[in-house]
Amino acid sequence: MLEELKRQVYEANMMLPKNGLVTFTWGNVSGIDRESNLLVIKPSGVDYNRLSPEYMVVVDLNGEVVDGHLKPSSDTPTHIELYKAFPNIGGIVHTHSTYATSWAQAGRGIPCYGSTQADYIYGPVPCAPCPSKEEIEDNYEKNTGLLIVKEFKDIDYQAVPAVLCKNHGPFTWGKNPFEAVNNAILLEEVAKMAMFTERINPNVMPAPQHLQDKHYSRKHGENAYYGQM
Predict the structure, then answer these.
(1) Can you give the pLDDT at residue 228?
(2) Can 55 be counted among the known catalytic residues?
(3) Does residue 229 carry a pLDDT above 80?
(4) Ordered domains of the chain (ranges, CATH)
(5) I need a labelling partner for 152 at 20 to 30 A (CA). Which of 87, 110, 127, 138 fits?
(6) What Cα–Cα distance (Å) separates residue 142 from each residue in 10, 85, 146?
(7) Which residue of the set 33, 67, 119, 140 is catalytic?
């Protein structure tokens, strides 16, 4: 079932350790088939060097396993809430990458200090609040997803394909699992740059809006002109 999507999700998962985004089993990638409303996700707690496409788990949007002999990632309910709320995404990544997670643990979003971030993310990366004690005790992972969705009530999830969860870590998404991983790599780099920027100049301000607008519009939208046709 969904063999091609299993292969893609497996390959996307293997990009995480290759790019230094995970330690041990601290991360996962999923992808969704919108025709069947089934998603494929990494199994829970399985070392990356033991993974293979057939280990990927297929679940429905109720979180029920429909194919696979292993338990899906414990973050599956978070992925499900994002897929339900963000209809144009096809892949999601969660990691505990060092720099992005440091901002999350500090409870801060990542300001846009320059064109590197503006090329791919339109504005700051938001930080969703930590779930309450009650939300943690009652379906923690699902409530994490709901808090992310609430955070994006007035934010375009396609223009800002990343979020930090306070005291937890980052989630990114894209039109497919590979784009979601690319956005996770990008997020880690801009988190690192922002940290060093603030260390060099503690009084730094976000990049001017007109510069952010220019750099984002060069790569996105009907007037984009970056790259080859």
Answers:
(1) 87
(2) no
(3) no
(4) 3-219 (3.40.225.10)
(5) 138
(6) 23, 12, 6
(7) 119
